[in-house]
Amino acid sequence: MAHVALTLDGRYLQMRGGPERRLDVGTGELEPRGVFERCDLGHGRIALRTLDGRYLATGPDTGHGYGIYPAEELTPAAAFEEVLWPDGRVSLRSCHLTYVGAGPQGPVTVNLVEPGVTERFSLVPVPAPNVPEQRRRIGAAVQSSAPRATSASPSSSA
Asked: What is the pTM of this model?
């Protein structure tokens, strides 16, 4: 699952534009600001990267405790543990051991220590045509530059 979108009750989570960029509950339509690259960090942890290369990270928030904001670098605040539920949904637990949650409207918060229904999201795979062409080329270039295993042919001695 390279590119994903997060949904809660049929609405996509997306980055809010303007001066206060943060993750927010959006509409029922998928927009580019709601598409994230899912980066597997191992040990059940992931990072989500925006199409402009920033990571979703937990950060202090006024009036909400913690929220999700874009960060330039991959830090512990940008790593989330995936907690899988039997119905296929997922909860994201932050480095502060609190869960990412969202109400019907408004900002996404990271405040609760026990996951409820508002902390359970669906990770929806995003088809390649919905990912901007430039981002797809960057991903293909990274994959093609990865080292490949080669087999050495045995040499014969005369």
From this structure: 0.79
Say which DSSP state 20 is in.
S
Count of the separate structural domains present in the chain: 1
Q: Which domain holds residue 72?
A: 3-129
Q: Is residue 147 part of a domain?
A: no
Whether residue 64 lies inside any domain: the answer is yes
CA end-to-end distance (rounded Å), the chain: 51
Q: Per-residue pLDDT tens for 21-74?
A: 899 998 889 998 999 999 999 999 999 999 999 999 999 987 768 999 999 999
- In whole angstroms, give the CA distance from residue 144 to residue 139: 9
Whole-angstrom CA distances from 99 to 20, 65, 110, 111 are: 21, 12, 5, 6
CA distances from residue 3 to 18, 19, 51, 105, 133 in whole angstroms, order as listed: 24, 26, 9, 24, 13
Q: Is residue 135 part of a domain?
A: no
Structure confidence at residue 27 (pLDDT): 85
CATH no. for residue 10?
A: 2.80.10.50
